[in-house]
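Morning!

As promised:
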Amino acid sequence: MTSKVTKADSGTPMVKAEGVHKSFGPVEVLKGIDLEVKPGEVFCLIGPSGSGKSTFLRCINHLEKVNAGRLYVDGELVGYRQKGDKLYELKDSEVALKRRDIGMVFQRFNLFPHMTALENVMEAPVQVKGVSRAQARERAGQLLERVGLADKAGNYPTQLSGGQQQRVAIARALAMDPKLMLFDEPTSALDPELVGDVLDVMRDLAESGMTMVVVTHEMGFAREVGDSLVFMDEGVVVESGHPRDVLTNPQHERTQSFLSKVL
Amino acid sequence: MTADIDKTAGPESTPPAGPEAIKAIPVRHYGRYISAVAAIAIFVSIVYAFAQGQINWDAIPEYFFDDRILKGVGQTMLLTVLSMVIGIVGGVVLAVMRLSKNPVTSSIAWFYIWFFRGTPVLVQLVVWFNLGLVFEYINLGFVYKDYWSSFMTPLLTALLGLGLNEAAYMAEICRAGLLSVDEGQTEASHALGMSHSKTLRRIVIPQAMRVIVPPTGNEVINMLKTTSLVSVVQFSELFRYAQDIGQSSGAPVEMYFLAAAWYLVLTSVLSVGQYYVERYYARGSSRSLPATPLQKIRANLLSLSNRSGGGAKA
Ligand SMILES: Nc1ncnc2c1ncn2[C@@H]1O[C@H](COP(=O)(O)OP(=O)(O)O)[C@@H](O)[C@H]1O
Ligand SMILES: [Mg+2]
């Protein structure tokens, strides 16, 4: 891969995948993924359903174990420690430590239903980082304001619309001050009129310089906000490049047929 | 695309002035009247039969607050609470063990549940009581050493017998509860960097409680009644004291009635407690929580007074 610098170029890529393979039993879902996400970049991942996008995203924060290949986040191997030419599995506590720095936003929000919006955002800083409750509450309030939900702090998730829940989920991830944010189809479960609010928050986040890996079907967002785009199909990267190029002038026949269906 | 979605105010909130309210004759449920009359008749005849029987009813109020009975009630409650604590803590641990990926851990839990659910609790109590035949001493190194028989007090025997048996049942209830929580919750929690144990304690268990509490309420009530078995290990509680009084006072049957009445009182109190615990764990699960009985009563009174107040003004 040639390095076409877009934003920051601090040397180490934020995410680097080298021949990443992942199988569930006999089914090989990822068949050698190579890609590189630079710091500060908005990296979009598109592809048909079942092509392995979610699986790849989940490998990045080690919710799934990679079977072969190497995956690095900020220069560090995900899930393993390398000593000489031997790999040692990391302990759960070490994995947890690394996950602090990686925020994840899910298609189905996965807010904690027994906690209010504010408590959802406060939970991890208090429990994981040992931040005082007062401090965490103040920060959570600021984050909810940032996603436009200051007035919903006391609401339980069931009392929020899908779009509001997803924005709380983004605030919850941001509360850990991650250096990388993963979005797995953050707007796919939303009513069309609520999609815009979530995308606005994500656009704002991108402008603030956050490194983001976004699995999405929102081609408009990818084109406007994305710095790089990868089209995945059946566990391989079919085509990659700048979103404008790939979306307007796809080279591969598979990309063309996919785009003709979604655009 | 605006950042704020302000749902435009829905339909007009003022009631429509148009159509007249419907005044229809409601469906008559004759079956209900007939069954109510039949039920009352049967109930009255049963009460009458008991009132006519050879039972000295006066003995019941006489002994209802007897010191020994009150002590028995206290012991019964103590035993119920402590056994349930052992049962619930043990149950949660066993449930987590059974769901563990470690085959050794899950097999141990499986075996425990298989054994303790498979044998009658009365038999277990007697075995605990007689375990001195197997272990003459109890030896915890430097910490503690004693004869088994003096270590195993009746209370401890009863607690072990009831609590460990209960843990096997609670394990299955807790397992069902833990499984009822969406996997996405665990994932979200792990993704935030929370450890397994924090995820369990802070995220999964509080949500599992909604499923766990109702059957656990059942278990508590069952436990309360099962404590009446522990006289076999020489522990005295409500039933045993009632029996003793019955024998010395010459009113044995009356004392059984008395005990039954006390058990009813206790289970009723527990049912009320269960209602509030369920309500606590329901937070966030529905758009608005059901009103408590007190709130209902207050609301009814308010609406009554409003209605009469409105009528007075008119
Ligand atoms: N835990 C799992 N066990 C078995 N198969 C899985 C699991 N997770 C995903 N898969 C399979 O992997 C494939 C890719 O899934 P996924 O990564 O979710 O695709 P995408 O997000 O691109 O739609 C699918 O065929 C799916 O059925
Ligand atoms: Mg997916």
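The interface with chain B takes residues 61, 63, 92-93, 96-100, 102-104, 106, 108, 110-116, 123-124, 127-128, 148, 156-159, 161, 163-164, 169, 172-173, 176, 193-194, 196-197, 199-201 of chain A (CB under 8 Å).

Hope this helps with the figure draft.
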